[in-house]
Amino acid sequence: MTLQLTKKHSFDLVFDSQKLFRLILEAMTTPAQTVNIEEYRDRLFGDFPLFLAVAMTLLDNETSFNAFSNLRLTEEIESLTLARKEELPFADFLFISDSSYLEEAIENAKCGTLSDPHRSAVLIVQNEGEPDEQLAFFGPGIDGETRLAATRTVSDAIIMRDAKSYEYPQGIDLIFIRATGELLAVPRLVKVVR
After folding, report:
1. Would 121 be classed as within a structural domain?
2. Do 44 and 53 touch, CB atoms closer than 8 A?
3. For the whole model, what pTM was predicted?
4. Closest to 20 (Cα-Cα) out of 154, 183, 176
5. What is the pLDDT of residue 29?
6. CATH code for position 128
7. Which domain holds residue 58?
8. How far is CA 139 from its chain centroid?
9. Residues forming beta bridges with residue 84, ordered by sequence position
10. How many domains does the structure of the chain reveal?
11. Cα torsion for 123, 63, 36, 157, to the nearest 10°?
């Protein structure tokens, strides 16, 4: 009798994570432009497969994260990445699957220091709703300014982040993921025209 072992996920830690990393990097270097990561949705299971794909790409056993009250997502990220769960003010990555935690996350996320601004948190946010608001962005990676039809989630997050008035070059990076696979990044130094 032969025992057949099956994997729960089919996300390849080498090839898929390299390809997805390049897409995330493209989104970070061309702010307010979306990339599509839909192809990874079927390679992972659970309620937030695209969160898991990003976690498997960006996290490892030397990073920390917080997924708030989403215990199942927390367990999956811990199991798949070996990253450690950390209290909100100390976590490197914050996974926000429920927008009601957005304000708390932005208010308490670490924003780096003047000498090490890159030691700030990255917020990965479930982007809900339909794009119904035009936002104009400016900053590094943008020639002049660029416009984007944004959801209320994106608009609220950027308003709350910019209200913190971080001392340059401190801040937090935002990554928004729609269920359809669209990924949008707004790095810490990219602002919205008011």
Report:
1. yes
2. yes
3. 0.93
4. 183
5. 94
6. 3.40.50.11310
7. 15-188
8. 19
9. 64
10. 1
11. 0
In the numeric block, which tokens belong to residue 106?
């932005």
Token digits of residue 184: 């949008």
Both tokens of residue 91? 């976590």
Helix (H/G/I), strand (E/B), else coil: 176: strand
Query: Looking at the domain assignment, is residue 6 inside a domain?
Result: no
Domain presence at residue 5 = no
In a domain, 3, yes or no: no
* pLDDT digits (tens), the chain, 194 positions: 444 434 677 889 899 999 999 999 999 999 889 999 999 999 998 899 999 999 999 999 999 999 999 999 999 999 999 999 999 999 999 999 999 999 999 999 999 999 999 999 999 999 999 999 999 999 998 888 999 999 999 999 999 999 998 999 999 999 999 999 999 999 999 999 87
In 3-state terms, what secondary structure has residue 11?
coil
Q: Rounded CA gap, 61 and 123, in Å?
A: 18
Strand order from edge to edge, sheet including 146-150: 146-150, 133-138, 191-192
Are 60 and 82 a contacting pair, CB within 8 Å? yes
The predicted structure's pLDDT at residue 193: 86
Q: Which amino acid is at 43?
A: R
Number of Cβ within 10 Å of residue 171's Cβ equals 24
